C-alpha cells in the first residue's frame, strides 16, 4: 500500500535546484517553504505506515545525505478546509461533525485540537473516514498513533545511518492469532539486545541488497517459516528471525528466500516449506555444528 508523508525537514532548501530536482525526479515529491520552515511531501509503499516510513528514510538518506527529517506534519484542517477539499458546503461538513448525517458508519474522527475556538482534524483521519463512503482520495496517511511512532523513531533511525549501521524494522510473523503478546515480548527483548555493542553489526553483516535497512521478524515457535519469509520486503533478500527458545533464551537467525546469496537451504536440513520456527530450532540444536548453526543464514527454497 502507498502512504503519503508530510515531513518537516532541515538541511536542504527550495533555493537548491539540485535538491529540488532530486525530490521531484527521484521521489515524485514536493519541497516547499513556509515562514522559514521547509516541508517535504513524499510517498512510499510499505506493509504499513511504519514500514513505508522506514523505507523512505533509507531512500532519502541515499539520495540527499544532508537532509534531516525532523518530524511528521499532521496536515491539520478545519471545517472550511474540509469543505473545500471535498466540494461540499460548510453546513454539510458541520452535520458530519455533529453526527447529524451518515450515522450508519463509524463516527466522524475526533479533532486533533483547537485553533482559536475552532476544532481542527488530521486530514488523514478525515480522508480515511470518507473512504468508507467511497469519497476518499485514495491517499493513505499515517494515523495519529503511527505518526507518533514515526516521530519517536526518526532520530534513532537517522543516528543509526550516521553511524553506518542499518536501521531496523520490526515486524511480527503473524498477527491476530492470540500470540501477539509473545511476539511483542520478543521485540522488547531484542531492542535491548541490539543496543549492546557489536550485536547489530554482527547480525547485519551477511550479504544483502539493501545494506542500510534490516527487517527483524519477531516470531514464536509455532510460526511457520514461510509466514516469516513472507514478511521480507520485495526489495530485500534477507531478514533476521527473532524468537525465544524453550528456556526463554533469545535466538537470532538470518533467514532469506531463494535465491539469496550464501544461504543454507532448509531442504538440506530435512525441513520443508511448512516447517515451523520450532522445527528449525530443533534441527539446529541437535546438529553436529549446533554452536555455529544459528550464525549461518538459512534460505527457504
Can you give a write-up of this model?
It is a single chain. By secondary structure, the protein is α/β, with parallel strands linked by helices. 36% of the residues lie in helices and 23% in strands. The protein is built from eleven helices and 13 strands. The strands form three sheets. It has a six-stranded mixed beta sheet with strand order 8-9-10-11-13-12. Strands 2-3-1-4 form a four-stranded antiparallel beta sheet. Helix 3 (79-86) packs across helix 4 (90-98). The longest helix is centred in the middle third of the chain and has 19 residues, at 144-162. The radius of gyration is 23 Å and the shape is globular. The two termini are 27 Å apart.
In a few lines, what is going on in this structure?
The chain is α/β, with parallel strands linked by helices. The protein is 36% helix and 23% strand. The protein has helices at residues 17-27, 49-63, 79-86, 90-98, 123-131, 144-162, 180-194, 199-203, 225-229, 277-285, 290-293, and strands at 2-10, 30-34, 37-45, 68-72, 76-77, 113-115, 118-122, 167-172, 213-218, 238-244, 250-257, 264-265, 298-300.
In whole angstroms, the N-to-C terminal distance is: 27 Å
Question: Nearest-angstrom radius of gyration?
Answer: 23 Å
Structural class: alpha/beta
Average pLDDT: 88
* Total strands: 13
- How much of the residues is beta strand, in percent? 15-25%
Keywords:
301 residues, alpha/beta, 6-stranded mixed sheet, 4-stranded antiparallel sheet, 11 helices, 36% helix
In terms of topology, how is this protein built?
Elements: E1 2-10, H1 17-27, E2 30-34, E3 37-45, H2 49-63, E4 68-72, E5 76-77, H3 79-86, H4 90-98, E6 113-115, E7 118-122, H5 123-131, H6 144-162, E8 167-172, H7 180-194, H8 199-203, E9 213-218, H9 225-229, E10 238-244, E11 250-257, E12 264-265, H10 277-285, H11 290-293, E13 298-300
Parallel strand pairs: 8-9, 9-10, 11-13, 12-13
Antiparallel strand pairs: 1-3, 1-4, 2-3, 5-7, 6-7, 10-11
Amino acid at each position: 500500500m502507498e502512504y503519503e508523508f508530510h515531513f518537516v525537514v532541515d538541511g536542504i532548501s527550495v533555493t537548491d535546484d539540485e535538491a529540488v530536482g532530486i525530490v521531484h525526479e527521484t521521489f515524485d515529491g514536493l519541497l516547499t517553504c513556509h515562514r522559514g520552515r521547509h516541508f517535504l511531501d513524499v510517498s512510499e509503499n510499505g506493509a504499513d505506515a511504519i514500514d513505508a516510513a522506514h523505507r523512505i528514510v533509507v531512500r532519502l538518506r541515499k539520495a540527499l545525505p544532508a537532509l534531516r527529517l525532523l518530524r511528521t506534519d499532521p496536515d491539520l484542517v478545519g471545517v472550511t478546509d474540509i469543505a473545500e477539499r471535498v466540494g461540499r458546503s460548510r453546513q454539510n461538513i458541520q452535520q458530519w461533525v455533529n453526527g447529524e448525517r451518515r450515522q450508519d458508519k463509524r463516527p466522524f474522527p475526533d479533532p486533533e485540537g483547537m485553533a482559536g475556538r475552532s476544532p481542527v482534524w488530521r486530514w488523514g483521519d478525515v480522508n480515511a473516514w470518507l473512504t468508507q463512503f467511497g469519497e476518499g482520495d485514495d491517499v493513505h496517511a499515517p494515523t495519529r498513533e503511527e505518526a507518533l511512532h514515526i516521530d519517536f523513531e526518526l532520530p534513532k533511525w537517522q543516528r543509526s545511518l550516521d553511524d553506518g549501521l542499518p536501521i531496523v524494522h520490526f515486524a511480527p510473523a503473524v498477527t491476530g492469532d492470540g500470540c501477539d503478546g509473545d511476539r511483542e515480548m520478543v521485540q522488547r527483548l531484542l531492542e535491548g539486545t541490539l543496543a549492546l555493542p557489536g550485536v547489530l553489526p554482527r547480525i547485519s553483516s551477511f550479504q544483502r541488497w539493501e545494506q542500510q535497512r534490516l527487517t527483524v521478524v519477531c516470531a514464536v515457535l509455532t510460526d511457520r517459516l514461510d509466514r516469516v519469509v513472507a514478511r521480507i520486503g520485495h526489495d530485500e533478500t534477507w531478514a533476521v528471525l527473532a524468537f525465544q527458545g524453550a528456556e526463554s533464551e533469545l535466538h537470532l537467525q538470518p533467514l532469506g528466500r531463494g535465491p539469496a546469496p550464501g544461504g543454507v537451504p532448509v531442504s538440506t536440513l530435512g525441513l520443508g516449506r511448512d516447517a515451523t520456527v520450532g522445527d528449525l530450532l530443533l534441527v539446529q540444536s541437535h546438529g553436529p555444528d549446533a554452536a555455529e548453526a544459528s550464525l549461518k543464514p538459512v534460505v527457504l527454497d
